[in-house]
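Re: beginner question about structure tokens

> Can someone show what the tokenized structure looks like for a real chain? I only ever see the sequence side.

Sure, here's an example I had lying around. Input first:
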Amino acid sequence: MELVSFLTINEQPIPLAKALAYLRATGDLQPFILKIIRQHILETELQTHDDLEIDPTIIEQAIIDFRLENQLNNPDNFQDWLKTQSLSYPEFRHQIASRLKIEKLKMEVTKLKLEEYFNANKTLLDQIALSRIVVADKDFALSLKNQILEEVSRFEPLAREHSLTDDRLANGRMEPLSLGQIPDQIRDYVATAKLGELIGPLEIDGRYALLRVEQFLPVSLEGSLKQQLQEQLFDQWLQEKAEKLTIKMHID
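And the corresponding structure tokens:
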């Protein structure tokens, strides 16, 4: 490979081959290459799709939104920021337009599969709110369970007093989780439990947990979940595109 200077450090030129060797040594070469491949696929798709053009007024509004969000409304501050990014205004505008086109492409690619994918995975996407008490000893966990079964209101004070996890400060109440996020060894217990049911003690990573089902939270295909699933399907589409490419590396 020709010794093309990629950058300089203290006036010392770093050839591209050496820069790639550095990335290889740190384990960052593969992610770096994958980003290049992904961008190549996106650029190719944007050039071959005639239906992705964005109304100029939408681009201008996106630029305004970006500047407001990043506190760059002042023209001088905006120009200074462009310099720090080594961007001209036309290059910046092109970036914004490209992002909008990619979002449009994402919607086109995923629209036919999104609802099917959601329905196929809804069981694992539905959320559940749990409270827990986690202790180190199984017999002690059984003792706490008996106390709670005798008097349900004992759960919260016992969680505050004895639980080993940070959520004891919230009476053992955990943030809602999707069933897919719950470890396999306890998922079936939780998924089939009734509201308010006390489960356990269950061994998790050498500790013993009492779990109580507080709320079932079925999800719908909207908002952040819809965006998350679109990203997953789009990534799968990009991966399938990448697998069909013939890729060769030329590093001396």
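Each token stands for a local structural state, so reading them left to right follows the chain. The two ends are 6 Å apart (CA to CA).
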